[in-house]
Design a protein that fits this description.
Shape: globular
Order of helices and strands: HHHHHHEEH
CATH architecture: Up-down Bundle
Strand order of the largest sheet: 1-2
Helix content: 55-70%
Number of strands: 2
């Protein structure tokens, strides 16, 4: 079995992340991340830039903010994977997604620019992940007070993006 096709076991991540791992199809997770990026970028590039400011309900994030959240989270997860793959055993803190979005709430994001930024980020993430050896994928570290493997972080990254793209389709594009 190829190293990137081995699904992480439940001992490799906190129970909270099961929902993301479950969203990732069996097979090569790198291929899944590549396919996701192509599908997401095609969908997002077809949107009117005005749609980026749409909120499907009061108090919900605008589409642009959801994209920022996806990218913030991918950066955090890939940073964790990078550190742990290099043998860094320093515990890493959690992050507050709502506080992150609050800090950028007044930034005037342009949807096409965010989509281009996501394309560049995913390409960089894939470059990092492709460089992981089987041994690196099995390395562990502590993030948010929970032990996690590099392999799990790769799969969680894919599942998190899929989760939010499904929400975008259901709540932002259905109207």
């Amino acid at each position: 079995m190829h190293a990137f096709s081995q699904r992480p076991g439940v001992s490799e991540y906190a129970p909270y992340f099961q929902r993301y791992v479950d969203l990732v199809p069996d097979g090569d997770v790198i291929a899944t991340l590549e396919r996701q990026a192509a599908e997401s970028l095609q969908m997002l590039r077809g949107l009117d830039p005005v749609k980026g400011h749409y909120r499907y309900a009061p108090g919900k994030w605008a589409l642009n903010e959801v994209l920022v959240h996806i990218m913030d989270t991918e950066r955090v997860f890939s940073h964790r994977a990078f550190r742990f793959s290099r043998g860094d055993r320093s515990p890493l803190p959690s992050f507050d997604q709502d506080a992150y979005i609050e800090r950028v709430a007044n930034v005037r994001y342009d949807l096409p620019d965010l989509v281009d930024q996501f394309a560049r980020l995913r390409a960089s993430t894939l470059d990092l992940f492709r460089g992981f050896t089987r041994e690196m994928l099995e390395m562990r570290g502590v993030a948010s007070n929970n032990e996690v493997t590099v392999r799990a972080l790769v799969w969680i990254t894919a599942g998190h993006e899929r989760h939010h793209m499904e929400l975008i389709r259901a709540n932002y594009l259905a109207s």
